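Dear Dr. L.,

I hope this message finds you well. Following up on our conversation about the binding site, I have prepared a predicted three-dimensional model of the protein together with copper (II) ion. For your records, I am including the exact sequence and ligand specification that went into the calculation, followed by the structure tokens. Please feel free to forward this to your student if that is useful.
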Amino acid sequence: MKIQFKITNMTCTSCALVNEKSLLKAKGVTSAKVDFKSGLAEVEFDETTISQKHIKELITNNGYGVI
Ligand SMILES: [Cu+2]
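The resulting structure of the complex is given below.
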């Protein structure tokens, strides 16, 4: 499954990298791209292993917002 959502509060490209890395580290996530400029996150994952809610929690746990 593939989802797109927006991440808020990112101030630079390393914020995007931090979020991208934590997404990629999560079990069940097969691909993750975070664009700093647009704030857009694109995540592909196996929904039998990880939920959308959990994916978004990874971002909020890093101190960023999710829309
Ligand atoms: Cu930053």
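In brief: The mean pLDDT is 98.

With kind regards,
A. P.
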